[in-house]
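Fold this sequence, please.
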Amino acid sequence: MYRSSKRFTGFPCAHRKWRHQGHCAWVHGYSREFIVWFESRQRDENGFVMDYGGLKSVRDWLKEQFDHTLLLDASDPQLDQFRALEQSGACKLNILEDVSMEGTARHVYEHINQWVDQQSHGRVWVTSVECRENENNSGLYVPDDRV
């Protein structure tokens, strides 16, 4: 088995965890980064698990999702107010099931793994995605079939 990873950095965004009893309930931001682990039983003609030069569309998708966006849980009770702010031009919303680092890691995993599967014709898959909000905090998603 072969493994390789790619780090994607520089995605400044804000979020809030409305159910949190402390300061995480307030809108706050970080510059997120993602570490994606790829795996394959067979390397390509260049000896790579994943050719990083072919990941531009992944970076573009991450930029659309996380660059200067406001991430909110789909269950946020103030979603209508935030939508009004977006309509007025005050923010760019991205609504996720769970905006925690762990939930965001899963969101990114689901998109990238599907993309990688299609691009590699099943030769490569994603084994995990780590979402970092800073140098101290991160969340990791590993799908059940990889644990």
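The chain has a mean pLDDT of 96. The CA atoms of residues 2 and 47 lie 10 Å apart.
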